């Protein structure tokens, strides 16, 4: 356990009171679950979460008081161990040390030291954190993600009765009646043998309404082609009236609005952090892609359904948002010729497949996304924003959250050059340039 924790968190953590705690000591204290709390002192929602999380943390650890530093310091190891143990580590995006100190002072859990800015950024990228506050739970022994949306755990299970909140099969989480907009009710067992799209959306969200219009046509085309496919709408609407109005536009199924517990469990299962989100599942209930929105917009004829992920994507307006999800390798070819773009994809695909397979074996997301960028207005804007040279071809790694870029400007790009570039990046041998 301590090896994984030290690789993830480093050697030292600090308490709210400023005391250092050796990371390897966490293993000796029987920690079963590790929560990573991503936040910032300047965020009002983070301040609200900290208050509710403190009470939750105290109940689960069996602490008699959940005041600053309670149970987190060296003295806590001598206390009797409760049946299960939870530790939380605050991962801050604060840029001001005094503000950070004032914020962590009231936390009963641990925090990454302020100076560990590089490690904090690696954690944000590793778990693709896109907004704050975020709370994810990891198995402290294996490092596997147990729950991607800990905020819903605090709301739905404040006493920790379902600890350790491990992922359950889709079939079990979705079990129960599903509705059609004509009032007909079907049992979830009717989904057996079908690909399923789990659609998290709401009427108040303009991008959701835009996607829904496209998705209705995609659904129709897939069904007309004889494919076994169903979509389940999981509403984030603010009233049942809004839900009914929005659902009336949809030809598929929905979890009843009144079944808030089931809607919340589905959000927890897939760690939904924003809408619209379309998760596409195979007939066994395993995730094919979390990027259903991008796939639907890029493939309006649904020729590539059920949209198995490609190792290398062609950068487009619809998938450019993924550049903000973590480090991305982008090979700029500056050509409108489809043949040149395809050749560029084939050039970087072997290393992309190797990296993806390596991390999939560890049940982790790959630390890089891979793109080929042609010549269009969006690519020109990206080059201008990141201040890249005009050379083509140009091999880069862009890390938007760190505002950093890595550039390989050579006359000829070969598979060996790509592999060396990627491996050196992952080994942190490359020197970043600012964006």
UniProtKB/TrEMBL annotation:
The keyword Cytoplasm applies. Keywords: Cytoplasm, Developmental protein, Differentiation, NAD, Nucleus, Oxidoreductase, Wnt signaling pathway. It is found in: Cytoplasm, Cytosol; Nucleus. PROSITE patterns: THIOREDOXIN_2. It catalyses: [protein]-dithiol + NADP(+) = [protein]-disulfide + NADPH + H(+); [protein]-dithiol + NAD(+) = [protein]-disulfide + NADH + H(+). Residues 164-314 form the Thioredoxin domain. InterPro entries: NRX_PDI_b, Thioredoxin-like_fold, Thioredoxin-like_sf, Thioredoxin_domain, TryX_NRX_thioredoxin_dom. One of its GO terms (molecular function) is thioredoxin-disulfide reductase (NADPH) activity. One of its GO terms (biological process) is negative regulation of protein ubiquitination. It is an enzyme of class 1 (oxidoreductase). SUPFAM superfamilies: Thioredoxin-like (SSF52833). One of its GO terms (cellular component) is nucleus. PANTHER family: NUCLEOREDOXIN (PTHR46472). Belongs to the nucleoredoxin family. Associates with the phosphatase 2A holoenzyme. Interacts with PPP2CA; the interaction is direct. Interacts with DVL1 (via PDZ domain); the interaction is direct and regulated by oxidative stress. Functions as a redox-dependent negative regulator of the Wnt signaling pathway, possibly by preventing ubiquitination of DVL3 by the BCR(KLHL12) complex. May also function as a transcriptional regulator act as a regulator of protein phosphatase 2A (PP2A). This is Nucleoredoxin. The lineage of its organism: Eukaryota, Metazoa, Chordata, Craniata, Vertebrata.
